[in-house]
Write a structure and sequence with these properties.
Layout (H helix, E strand, L loop, with lengths): L2 E6 L5 E5 L19 E6 H13 L27
Antiparallel strand pairs: 1-2, 1-3
The chain binds zinc ion.
Length: 83
Amino acid sequence: MPLYEYHCKECDCDFTLLQPATVNKDETVCSECGSPRVDHKFSTFSSKIQGVSAASKKGPVTLDELPNKDILKLPVPRLRSEL
Ligand SMILES: [Zn+2]
């Protein structure tokens, strides 16, 4: 389950909730004062993923970034009609 960070506009506190991705975030209330005036900031889980990919995306993907370089050493499959 991802972590969701909220900011309460009522009591100005930040809180984090472990919620299923399917939860209606509009119905989340502040864990401190119970106010529904909360801003959904971001999901810790997904922001980490996006942060990594954004940081490493400084240019075109090079061979070193491929997770499995061995795949390029495999013989290219040929069509039977080419033989
Ligand atoms: Zn609050």
